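Input set for joint prediction.
Command: fold jointly, output tokens.
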Amino acid sequence: MSHAGHLLIIIALLPFVGALVPGVMIRAGRTACAWFTAMPTALALVMLLILAPAVLRGEIIQAEITWLPQLGLSASFFLDGLGLLFACMITGVGLLITLYARFYLSGDDPMGQFYTYLLLFQGAMLGIVLSDNILLLLIFWELTSLSSFLLIGYWKHLPEGRQGAKMALTVTGAGGLAMIGGMLILGNIVGSYNLTDILQAGDQIKASEWYLPALILILLGAFTKSAQFPFHFWLPHAMAAPTPVSAYLHSATMVKAGVFLMARMWPALAGTEAWFYIVATTGLITMVLGALIALFKDDLKALLAFSTVSHLGLLTMLLGFGTKAAAVAAVFHIINHLTFKAALFMTAGIVDHETHTRDIKRLGGLRHLMPITFAIGTIAALSMAGIPLFNGFLSKEMMLEEASHTKWLDSYYVVPVLATIGALLSVAYSFRFISHVFLGPVRDDYPAKPHDPPFGMWAAPALLCVLVLVIGTMPFLADGIVAAAASAVTGETLDPHLKIWHGVTPALWMSVIAVAGGLLLLLIHRPLDMAWIKAPRPEAKAIFDRLISGLVTLTRGITEWSHNGAISRYLAIFTVTSVALGWVAYSGSGLSAPTRDLLPVPAVIAVGWVMLIVATVSVVVMHHHRFRALVLIGIIGLSISAGFVYLSAPDLALTQISVETVTIMLLLLALHFLPKMTPKESPLGLKLRDGAIAVVAGGGVGALAYAFMMRDIDTISGYHIANSYEGGGGTNVVNVILVDFRGYDTYGEIIVLGIAGFVIYALMHALLEGPAARRLKNTDYSQDRSRDRHPLMMVVVTRVLMPIAVVVGIYIFLRGHNQPGGGFVAGLVIAIALLMQYMASGFAWTQERKKIEYHTMIGIGVVIAGLTGAGAWLAGRPFLTSAYTYVHLPPIEEFELATAMLFDLGVFLTVLGAVMLMLYSLSRIARSAGTAAEVNETPMDYDPAEPVSANKAEV
Amino acid sequence: MEIIVASTVGVLTAGGVYLLLRLRTFAVILGLALLSYAVNVFLFASGRLAIDMSPILNKYGDGVYTDPLPQALVLTAIVISFGMTAVLVMIGLGAYLEAGSDEINIDPNAEDDATEPQA
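tokens >
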């Protein structure tokens, strides 16, 4: 990666890193906080400027961090003219907003939060414009939706703020979802998710039959983000945000993201009829409609919001034209709109801040009271109106010029006429902004005494106004960046020359008409306004709210039907759906002919099979008698273990038999506290229904298993068998797979098992401290107890068995790598040996002799396994690569030492710890149960060594 | 032999599903236990059946071995299903002790108040 590439990645990361700072720095004061917010932004801007000369020369700077190249996932960035333009706008305006917000926000507002959100948002925006991977772009795209949600709803105490934020998130989020679909289609057509590849495959994309769906989905994303009709309604509601947010989101960033995307995708998607009619028409409608509504808005910010909608429409229309000149005009207007609109939003904020109202009808005459604000507002508004010598004029002329020779459905008049009307309305609302706020007589009923704000507050808009004038009078200064960006949009090298005077063209006449008509409209604004207020208009928010509440009702209905609190119902639905899906899969393709012969069935197996089937049916029939059902479950488990032995799976048999033992003990312990009988409460209909589901599911699974077993498939097992000894150093392939080939899986498994142990422990604690504890104490379980709780014989036998069991456990563990056995089985065997002590000699007695906590054992086990795996790193090998050697100590036969054994030790300890922790937890409950909870400290109920007379009578 | 194993899987599944759909925790736990057996045997059988071909390598010659991979997977599955059963048992037990009932279905029409369990 080049030096410039590194810079690019730093630029993309800076805002996110910077976002961590303001929350902390706010303790150092508001000014310090603002400085620390400005720093990453300024740094990013400086780095961009360092890269700028190369980009303006036409170079493209690229940087890539590969992550999952197989899936086309990588963090790749690139910087071309378009990206540079937007990145400079985002960081530049970001700086101004940081300054402005420092003075705008009051002392009560949590400023640290504000700056954090701002930087997050800025990072997301930068990500969009710099991404070279469309999947990455999508992530940043959603991030802007999320972070703008935080910004718009920043004043959480205002209901409008919350609603506006919610609406913005819903609309842009829904559009984002559509866009994901579109982008994935695009990636599929091209075969790459790299933007640079996609942009070069324009012809391939346009020829594809999937072009139209992809286009519509992507445009949905762009239109919702850029507030195009009919999705324009969210933008005015987002005005509930603090003004710095509005100024940032609605001039330079958020809403421009949609425009950016259309510009970015221009080489890949533009130039077709579908593109022209969808994009240009939408833009045209939005431009006129937005301008019309703006004219009648009394709230300053609402006026600006709809004017933004209108100007976004203009940009969309220009991009929709699909010509190179239109692309140049669009790029130029993006710059111009940014300068005057950000200044205007800030002006509106200043007026609001100083007079405490944004209602145009309550303002007027501010010219004398706020001269600086007046100057700034007027310059910006004149530019918005498109008056010569201001930059808005230039790009508007270019727009009108393009519109004047655009044909729409055989008509040469539709576009020019509507474009002129749009411009005319734009003039009208711009002049209204100036005259109704600043001109006219000074009033004496302002909610607060207006005066100009401190320098810090008007510095940012003033700077923007300077830009307005500089570009307006000397447009050739912008030639370079416009050329670079427009070339990036169209994919061809363009060299436009921006001029003030183009001669007497149709566009000039259209401009004249617009200005004259706009002034006329302003003169008759009062009667028009009356008519507007009376006229019936669809209220977008009401429609949106109805739509959402309809959706909520629908989804709630579905949820309440399917998730009504009855787990049986979910399980039934789930089972039936699975069976149905299986059937669909089967009926779709059918079966190939079987390739294997049936294996013979010896008599003893047949007998075992009968036993197993009878036991299973009996469990179902007799499950009301819970103890009986447990005995039968035991039979089933043992039969299956026997089956494993016969079918060449000794490891499975060992595991099954020991797990079986532990499971039955666990269930027995639990049953101690549960009712011993399940009441017969299912009505016959329910039983029949469940029976039918069960038979169908069982039949399906059985048939599937049979079909499976009768056919051969290619497996990867040959590799394991071939490499088990050479690579893993063990002859028990199953064990080698567990501790070596698939060691990572096993590592995950033991962690899960450990977590299960902790979950049970935590549940037990919660239980013993909750209301259940009282219930336990008050329940008399004593009648269930045998009179001889700790029989002498059992105590003695388990003591004798203990060392033997431990030796067996160690033996099983040690032989595991080469013969059936291993950590899992060994852990279970030792656990059973320990459990026998608990059962025979009592909880307290055993607990007293326990030297290590089971939690610790789980922890140590996981750590040993993890360290063993990590040890491979020291040898420069991947995680969990095992090493082994052969050792010969004279009295013993030569044996093998493998790191895998250490890993297996971790498995052993975790299994042992988890199993013990589980059963220990259940026993803890038993200990605190019942009034007769005197727990014996001695191993037996009476001590046979003492004289008989000394024995107490049995309690 | 294949028919034996397939029918075992089928019967265990059917029994498991039926018990799973009962209305008390204990029956559901039993059902899950049966279903675990069924799933484990099913997974094991996906390596095809073989007799006297344990995947223990013979150091002194070539042998024919059964597929070891499903066995390794099932081995951990058995242990994990034990962990799962244990957690479920504990949750069921806790629910019973707290609520005084081991019914698994919440009556959507019932008042949502925390009644003191009757011992």
